[in-house]
Design goal:
153 residues, mainly beta, Metal Binding Protein, Guanine Nucleotide Exchange Factor, Chain A, three-stranded antiparallel β-sheet, five-stranded mixed β-sheet, binds zinc ion
Length: 153
């Protein structure tokens, strides 16, 4: 029997369930994650679609194309704005969860790696992870982003 965990948005209207251990999982310092969270980095946990269910809440969708030419689809609570889950074309149909939205203990897993350290906040120390990437393995930008979306520095 796999462990079932719950989580949800700030206002409490959007709630979800996930089962099992996230794969992949890691920290992302990319500009998209900084902007969509308003923070220095995102702590990502991916689940298979069959291991995720939305219990309640009204979600709003926002989609965009990243510099790699891949689609991002973000679903956030229409009331409070917390991202409840997202899907990245690069990860197929996996459901991405920002780990701060899990009920405590929110950060229940080990970090396998961190990516896009070329835009890591200068005040952060070493992240406890086995792998560290300046960009992403196989990363190949296809679009020249606006300056505000460029990484580095
Ligand atoms: Zn909410
Ligand atoms: Zn990112």
């Amino acid at each position: 029997m796999e462990v079932v965990r719950e989580g949800g948005c700030l206002c409490g209207e959007a709630r979800y369930l996930v089962s099992g251990y996230p794969e992949p999982r890691g920290v992302c310092h990319c500009r998209y994650c900084q902007l969509r969270t308003g923070s220095a980095f995102a702590v990502l946990a991916y689940f298979k679609p069959e291991n995720f269910s939305l219990k309640s809440g009204q979600l709003t969708h926002y989609g965009f194309t990243s510099e790699s030419g891949k689609q991002w689809d973000i679903n956030f609570c229409s009331k409070c704005g917390t991202t409840v889950y997202y899907q990245l074309e690069a990860w197929g149909d996996l459901i991405g969860i920002d780990s701060g939205t899990f009920d405590p203990p929110a950060f229940f897993f080990d970090i396998a790696g961190e990516v896009f350290t070329d835009s890591k906040a200068h005040f952060l120390g070493d992240i406890k992870a086995d792998r560290h990437f300046e960009k992403f393995p196989g990363y190949e930008p296809k679009i020249d982003e606006e300056d505000r979306l460029k990484r580095g520095g």
